[in-house]
Structures are given as C-alpha cells and as structure tokens.
Amino acid sequence: MQALTDVTVADFTQLMAGGWSTQKLGDMGADVIKIERPTGDVQREMSYRGTLLDGTGIGYLTMNRNKRSVALDLKTDEGHRAATKIVEAADVLVHNYRPGVMERLGLSYDDVTEFNPEIVYVAISGYGSSGPYADRPGQDLIYQAMTGLTSYTGRAGEPPTPAGTVVIDEHTATLAAMHTVQALYHRERTGDGQKVETNLLNAAVDLQCNELTYSMNVGEDLDRGEKTHGHPYLYPPYGIYQTDDGHVAIGMAPLETIADTFELDSLAEYDGQRQLFEHRDEIHDVIESYTETRPTDDVVDELVAADVQASAVRYPTEVPENPQVQHNDMILELDHPNGGTFKTTGIPVDMSSSEPAVARSPPGLGADTRDVLGDCGYSDADIDRLEANDVIRVAGDSRE
Length: 400
Description:
Structural class: alpha/beta
Order of helices and strands: EHEHEHEHHEHHEHHEEHHHHEHEEHHE
Protein name: CoA transferase
Number of strands: 12
Strand content: 5-15%
Keywords: Transferase
GO molecular function: transferase activity
CATH topology of the largest domain: Rossmann fold
Number of helices: 16
InterPro entries: CoA-transferase_III_domain (IPR050483), CoA-Trfase_fam_III (IPR003673), CoA-Trfase_III_dom3_sf (IPR044855), CoA-Trfase_III_dom_1_sf (IPR023606)
Distance between the termini: 41 Å
Helix content: 25-40%
CATH superfamily of the largest domain: Crotonobetainyl-coa:carnitine coa-transferase, domain 1
Strand order of the largest sheet: 6-5-4-1-2-3-12
Pfam family, one: CoA_transf_3
Oligomer: single chain
Largest sheet: 7 strands, mixed
C-alpha cells in the first residue's frame, strides 16, 4: 500500500506550480482526477522552443502521470454538477486559479465545505488570496525579479540574470504537495479538513532563506563577482572553471587542498575567509590558469582523488548517460498518450515502505471521463447525452 492509497484528489490545476504538485500526490498513490475543459489543459498544446513531442506539449507529459483525465465544461450547469459530484467524493481539492475564479464557479472553500466538510482544500496563487498584489498576474520570472534572485545571479557588470529553470514554480509545487500531506495527516488524527494556501511569492522568499537572512541582518545586498563563482557570498574554490575541453565545477574545499592538488604555491598568500572572498576573482584566475590547460576528466579525477567535490559541467542531453542517475532510476520511459513512448524524470525518493510509484502514464484528453462519471453514479445513457451536448469530452472524441 502506498501512503496515499484511497485518497482521491480533484485536480483543477494546470502549469507547473499546480500540475506538478498533484503529480507528486499521484506518485504517492492518490487517485488524481484531472478536471480539464473540453479543449484540454493549455499545456497539451504549449511548445518548448517551438517543439511538441508527437503532437503533445512536453510540459503536459512532464507533469501529468498518475492522473485520470475528465474533460467537462464547468461553465454549463450540467458540467458544474458533474464537477461537484467529483469534489463531493474527494479527499483533496487542488486549484491554481487566480483569486476569485473558484468563487465565480461556485467551488470556493466555503461552497465546497457545505457538502464536503472534511475536504483538504489547497489553493495555489501568485501572490496570495488578499493583499495589494492579489489581483496581479504573475509568472516565475516575475517572482525571481521581485524577491532579488535575478539581482545576484550571473556575473558583475552583466544584467540581472534569471535562473535556468523555473525554480519558483518548482518550489511552489513541492511546498503544496508537502503541506497537502501534512493536512491529510492532521485530518487522520483529528477528523478535520482545512484550507491550505500557498503562493509563488511566498515560495520565492522561502527558497532564498539564506540569502535574504544575510541581507536583512548584515544590511547589504549580494554583489556578484566578475568570474563564474557559484554563489555571491561564497568564496573560492567554489565555482566553475574553464578546462582544455569544457568546464568543471568545484565545490567547497580548503584552498590549501586545491593548492596542493594543482601545485599552485601562489594560493598560499590568501588566508582567512574574508580575504578569500575579497580576492575571489584573482583566486579564480589562479585556479583556472591550471584547469584550462587540462582535460576536464583529468581535473575531476585529480580533485575526487583529493576528496574534493567536483564534476564536469554537463548538458541536459548528457544526463541520461550519467551512471549514478541510471543507478538511481531517475530516468523513466512512459507511454505517450498519442502512441509510442517518451522519457521523463523519475521519482527522487526511495522509501522502505509505501514506495512512490508510476501506475499511469499521462492520460489522453477525456480518457477517463466515462469511468469517473460512472463512479459518480452517471449511467451510460447520461454520459452519452452529456457528450452529445458538448458538456463533456470522452476518449476518442474527434471534435476540432
């Protein structure tokens, strides 16, 4: 038995902050019912770099395994009634609509607790459900900029630099999933459901606990170095260095270890953490004067032999070949909803009991509408009528 076996999630989410959070619940064993409009989740047709994978957005494939798809029109009375029946039988509802949308749909927390008082109701928004920014639109980049992350990423003299992945959405999704499980545990102990709210702005602040605590207490911003240092308040050797055929990342280590390993006697003149930080650019150049003459693999081997954290800088296409990634089963091959298979990332946690697992590949649009509505008491004739009236969409529907 998995941890969330027998837990049903009514999933009104799309995009990463919502969609990835409910996938995590599905990985834990929850029955996640993805409620989509008849035209489908926007990510089904959203390209990455102008590319779809066999006609489907890669973002959809990434964030929707272990779910069942029900396609219905919430703006119709019958579609709303069907959604209400799904929510009535659910343990959890998750949505990431902007504030006010679920209220207009008649599915606010107050509405839902009228017929399902023990529901765990999870609301994910951009800035929170109230406050001066509550009605603003937002996206990952906006929160990175608003909370300082872009100001200290990159090199001195260059423009503010965003992270290479949507770190705020990713952290928000993880926080939402974690606190959903917390609320379920609370309900198991007390019998009480509750509302859980999180937002991307809060997640952006939480993600930078070290950096913001430093700046708030020391009273200074984080200045970037001119070199590829790994972090604006850490000091060498932490950073990325050019090699003869690529780049190498070096982690935290005593500078004397680097000096001994690379036979760089000039590093001995730098002593103490403050001096290391103040002279970080020139220290970087001294270390790089050695690494840039050597093949990447040789540099990594030398450092690992000296018990220093080091890795070649790899590209995404190289990650599946990493022997430790393979050993950890972090690359999965799943069925594509349009036929064939695709590769995606695996589950990052091992557990001795209640192991997370992938039981379902991402569903085609409306693939489970008939089964889910049947579970809610609809007859085949009822479902056929709803389909004919364009209230729902079922698998194999070829409408434009």
